[in-house]
Amino acid sequence: YPNPVMNTLNFNYDPEEIEMLEIVDCTGRTLIRTSSLNKNSIEVSNLARGIYTLRVTGKTTTETHRFVKR
């Protein structure tokens, strides 16, 4: 949240439970990949306007969420 997002994408995951966080564009290209999170947000202001997928890989599951960058 928020969705659409302008600068900072927030999420409701415990950063210690996340093994990998990725932001993927509509062509499947990974634009952001990080495994070092210390807060429940990620900066997306450098992304172009469009629709993206947030892929969150935890210790036991992987979840995907779509968001709009405004």
Describe the 3D structure.
0% of the residues lie in helices and 50% in strands. The protein is mainly β and 70 residues long. Strands 3-2-5-6 form a 4-stranded antiparallel sheet, with no helix packed on it. The protein is globular and about 30 Å long. The mean pLDDT is 93.
Largest pleated sheet: 4 strands, antiparallel
Shape: globular
> How many beta-strand segments?
6
What topology, given as strand order, has the largest sheet? 3-2-5-6
What order do the SSEs take from the amino end to the carboxyl end, as H and E? EEEEEE
Stretches where pLDDT is under 50 for at least 5 consecutive residues are none
Distance separating the two termini: 13 Å
Question: In short, what is this structure?
Answer:
This protein is an all-beta fold and 70 residues long.
What keyword list fits this structure?
single chain, four-stranded antiparallel sheet
Give me the secondary-structure topology.
Elements: E1 8-10, E2 18-24, E3 30-34, E4 41-43, E5 50-58, E6 62-69
Antiparallel strand pairs: 1-4, 2-3, 2-5, 5-6
